């Protein structure tokens, strides 16, 4: 019986073989645009991460050579750490087997002999995993990009075929953890599994035990919608799980093996933390979070190319219309030597704060991040550029203090039940004082009144509703503390926001260069495990939105200035379709050659929309070489991306 199960299990779960699901009409449309075979290759490539991580160097703080040196050391360290994890695991299995678990004995044997036999790129690698060998393999793992000298490429491994027989439990049944799609996509990029990403797991999982990690994928509800069906906390042997999963559906959706960092019970009780530390991954890429902070920025290669294509010069005035989280903004500022003015817009307040944080981390001072709807970025009335001259935007002290206050609030919001004191202390002492101070010191007269309102909500104040606090002034409940914290956070955000400059937008023709890295359907992003949610209607809506954004962008470029338009989608309607729209609508705008030219040509032709009633054209013959398209199937192994560069003549 056990033998049979094992065979079945090895057949079903031997490798990562995901199938990307599309809305059928979108699939037809893209098949027509790219050709059936090419689209099938694109679909396959999208499910994998690139094996290259691309790191942009902050050349104002360090050098490419130094980054290569540091990253090589880091990658080696990562490999050693992985090896230690494997050893630790082997020891754990051995201990379990000594304790008399026959299945663990089998596992220990398998683990001990097979962990180094991971298939790499389809061939069995050498058994040797000695430090020396790992070291020599690492030489050349980090290297300078062949065209862009401010870019370091770090080569990972994949696809790796993983031997899941090491994670069998009693009776040959797989010990496993099922994670959400978003979590799986992060794991494929090098992350561990964090608690919120876990949806289901086997009935009995102990700390330190090896588990297979798979993804709970969307499935059709038969009425044009999609559902996952697995709720957090599901036990895999339960009736609910059996009705949601069947082995055939899940074949190919296993993304690696990890070590459980907590028992099953703890895993579903906790709100945060690492749930499973990945030991083997279908794609082995080093994580970069927190590595060489401020000196490097992990960025997709085409995004770096887009900032180079913009060709920003020191002293110029540049607008980045849809800027958060600020990858391209900071790239632009760095290319300008931090000299000039880079105005970065985003419509989301919290995302604007992300830009500010990134600029501070990279020590860039020429960036002004502003919360603004780019659809309203052209000034309509003859109002002055700045509303408030005495309160310049991005006043560091103000922003830094807001960041601090928001961080305190985040501690409160994210703290676990074991940390009630943190909640109370933070809420009572810091957050309240911080809020009152920010309000009182940093904002104008009308907001001072708000400051006193907040101060007057102190626990001991007479105005305080009795039930919110205990007699000693502490919050009566966790819920009350959180509610208060959220309220304060909103008020703090509003109050610490500087007087909005450019409230009425920017004067027409007031920028040397404009970058519109437009919000899009993001169909080029990798790894992508599901694409069913994107409909033809949705794609058209994105294109319409981009047309409205680019209408604004064209008006903001000075005569003989430059406009760069980019997206991370494969949808020609959002790429070539928008370029056609610009060329046909604005006779003074023309396509410019790009440098560097790393991607391939654009698509000539068009699409029939609204069931053939309207034809939306793309590029005309001769124009295709003036844009660049990054193809996930191409030799550069990048995300799908599109860049067009326009020159705006006097008009
Ligand atoms: C593709 S992302 C930009 C990525 C960014 N350029 C980078 O490289 O880091 C698009 C951004 O546009 C923002 N956005 C969407 N609509 C907007 C609008 N009307 N005005 C300003 N920002 C907008 C979104 O909040 C999102 O952060």
From TrEMBL:
<feature type="compositionally biased region" description="Basic and acidic residues">
    <location>
        <begin position="487"/>
        <end position="497"/>
    </location>
</feature>
<dbReference type="InterPro" id="IPR023267">
    <property type="entry name" value="RCMT"/>
</dbReference>
<dbReference type="InterPro" id="IPR029063">
    <property type="entry name" value="SAM-dependent_MTases_sf"/>
</dbReference>
<feature type="binding site">
    <location>
        <position position="346"/>
    </location>
    <ligand>
        <name>S-adenosyl-L-methionine</name>
    </ligand>
</feature>
<dbReference type="InterPro" id="IPR002478">
    <property type="entry name" value="PUA"/>
</dbReference>
<dbReference type="GO" id="GO:0003723">
    <property type="term" value="F:RNA binding"/>
</dbReference>
<feature type="compositionally biased region" description="Basic and acidic residues">
    <location>
        <begin position="91"/>
        <end position="108"/>
    </location>
</feature>
<dbReference type="InterPro" id="IPR015947">
    <property type="entry name" value="PUA-like_sf"/>
</dbReference>
<keyword id="KW-0808">Transferase</keyword>
<comment type="similarity">
    <text>Belongs to the class I-like SAM-binding methyltransferase superfamily. RsmB/NOP family.</text>
</comment>
<keyword id="KW-0489">Methyltransferase</keyword>
<dbReference type="InterPro" id="IPR018314">
    <property type="entry name" value="RsmB/NOL1/NOP2-like_CS"/>
</dbReference>
<keyword id="KW-0694">RNA-binding</keyword>
<feature type="region of interest" description="Disordered">
    <location>
        <begin position="440"/>
        <end position="504"/>
    </location>
</feature>
<feature type="binding site">
    <location>
        <begin position="322"/>
        <end position="328"/>
    </location>
    <ligand>
        <name>S-adenosyl-L-methionine</name>
    </ligand>
</feature>
<feature type="region of interest" description="Disordered">
    <location>
        <begin position="85"/>
        <end position="108"/>
    </location>
</feature>
<dbReference type="GO" id="GO:0001510">
    <property type="term" value="P:RNA methylation"/>
</dbReference>
<dbReference type="Pfam" id="PF01472">
    <property type="entry name" value="PUA"/>
</dbReference>
<dbReference type="InterPro" id="IPR049560">
    <property type="entry name" value="MeTrfase_RsmB-F_NOP2_cat"/>
</dbReference>
<dbReference type="GO" id="GO:0008173">
    <property type="term" value="F:RNA methyltransferase activity"/>
</dbReference>
<protein>
    <recommendedName>
        <fullName>SAM-dependent MTase RsmB/NOP-type domain-containing protein</fullName>
    </recommendedName>
</protein>
<feature type="binding site">
    <location>
        <position position="517"/>
    </location>
    <ligand>
        <name>S-adenosyl-L-methionine</name>
    </ligand>
</feature>
<dbReference type="InterPro" id="IPR001678">
    <property type="entry name" value="MeTrfase_RsmB-F_NOP2_dom"/>
</dbReference>
<feature type="binding site">
    <location>
        <position position="373"/>
    </location>
    <ligand>
        <name>S-adenosyl-L-methionine</name>
    </ligand>
</feature>
<keyword id="KW-0949">S-adenosyl-L-methionine</keyword>
<dbReference type="InterPro" id="IPR036974">
    <property type="entry name" value="PUA_sf"/>
</dbReference>
<feature type="active site" description="Nucleophile">
    <location>
        <position position="568"/>
    </location>
</feature>
<feature type="domain" description="SAM-dependent MTase RsmB/NOP-type">
    <location>
        <begin position="227"/>
        <end position="649"/>
    </location>
</feature>
<dbReference type="Pfam" id="PF01189">
    <property type="entry name" value="Methyltr_RsmB-F"/>
</dbReference>
<feature type="compositionally biased region" description="Polar residues">
    <location>
        <begin position="452"/>
        <end position="463"/>
    </location>
</feature>
């Amino acid at each position: 019986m056990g033998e049979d199960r094992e065979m079945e299990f090895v057949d079903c779960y031997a490798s990562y073989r995901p199938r990307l699901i599309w809305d059928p009409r979108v699939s037809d449309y893209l098949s027509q645009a790219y050709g059936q075979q090419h689209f099938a290759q694109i679909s396959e490539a999208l499910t994998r991460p690139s094996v290259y991580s691309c790191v942009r160097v902050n050349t104002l703080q360090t050098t490419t050579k130094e980054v290569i040196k540091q990253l090589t050391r880091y990658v080696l360290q990562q490999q050693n750490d992985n090896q230690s994890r494997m050893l630790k695991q082997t020891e754990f299995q051995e201990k379990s087997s000594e304790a008399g678990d026959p299945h663990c004995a089998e596992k220990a044997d398998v683990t001990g002999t097979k962990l180094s036999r991971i298939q790499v790129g389809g061939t069995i690698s050498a058994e040797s995993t000695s430090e020396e060998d790992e070291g020599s393999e690492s030489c050349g793992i980090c290297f300078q990009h062949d065209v862009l000298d401010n870019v370091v490429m770090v080569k990972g491994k994949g696809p790796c075929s993983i031997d899941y027989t090491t994670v069998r439990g009693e009776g040959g049944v797989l010990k496993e953890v099922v994670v959400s799609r978003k979590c799986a996509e992060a794991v494929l990029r090098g992350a561990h599994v964090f608690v919120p990403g876990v949806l289901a797991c086997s009935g009995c999982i102990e700390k330190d035990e090896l588990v297979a990690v798979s993804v709970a994928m969307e499935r059709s509800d038969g009425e044009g919608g999609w559902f996952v069906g697995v709720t957090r906390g599901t036990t895999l042997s339960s009736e609910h799980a059996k009705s949601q999963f069947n082995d055939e559906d899940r074949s190919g959706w296993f993304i690696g093996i990890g070590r459980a960092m907590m028992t099953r019970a703890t895993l579903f009780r906790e709100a945060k933390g690492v749930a499973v530390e990945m030991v083997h991954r279908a794609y082995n890429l080093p994580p970069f979070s927190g590595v060489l902070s401020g000196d490097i920025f992990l960025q997709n290669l085409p995004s770096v190319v887009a900032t180079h294509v913009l060709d920003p010069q020191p002293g110029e005035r540049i607008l980045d219309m849809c800027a958060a989280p600020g990858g391209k903004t900071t790239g632009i500022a760095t290319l300008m030597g931090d000299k000039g003015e880079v105005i970065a817009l985003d419509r989301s307040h919290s995302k604007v704060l992300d830009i500010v944080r990134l600029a501070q981390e990279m020590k860039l001072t020429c960036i002004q991040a502003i919360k603004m709807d780019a659809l309203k970025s052209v000034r309509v009335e003859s109002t002055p550029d700045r509303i408030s001259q005495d309160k310049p935007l991005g006043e560091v002290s103000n922003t830094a203090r807001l960041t601090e206050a928001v961080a305190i609030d985040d501690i409160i919001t994210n703290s676990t039940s074991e940390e009630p004191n943190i909640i109370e202390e933070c809420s009572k002492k810091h957050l309240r004082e911080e809020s009152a101070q920010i309000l009182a010191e940093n904002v104008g007269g009308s907001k001072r009144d708000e400051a006193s309102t907040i101060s007057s909500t102190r626990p001991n104040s007479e105005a305080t509703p009795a039930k919110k606090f205990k007699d000693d002034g502490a919050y009566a409940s966790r819920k009350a503390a959180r509610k208060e914290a959220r309220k304060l956070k909103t008020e703090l955000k509003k109050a610490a926001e500087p007087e909005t400059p450019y409230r009425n937008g920017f004067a027409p023709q007031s920028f040397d260069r404009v970058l519109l890295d437009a919000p899009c359907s993001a169909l080029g992003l990798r790894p992508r495990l599901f694409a069913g949610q994107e409909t033809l209607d949705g794609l058209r809506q994105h294109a319409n939105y981009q047309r409205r954004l680019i209408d604004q962008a064209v008006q903001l470029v000075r005569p003989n200035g430059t406009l760069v338009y980019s997206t991370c989608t494969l949808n020609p309607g959002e790429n070539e379709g928008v370029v056609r729209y610009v060329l046909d609508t604005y006779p003074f705008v023309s396509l410019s050659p790009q440098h560097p030219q790393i991607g391939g040509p654009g698509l000539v032709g068009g699409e029939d929309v609204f069931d053939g009633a309207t034809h939306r054209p793309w590029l005309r013959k001769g124009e295709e070489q003036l844009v660049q398209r990054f193809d996930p199937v191409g030799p550069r192994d990048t995300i799908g991306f599109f860049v067009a560069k326009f020159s705006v003549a006097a008009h």
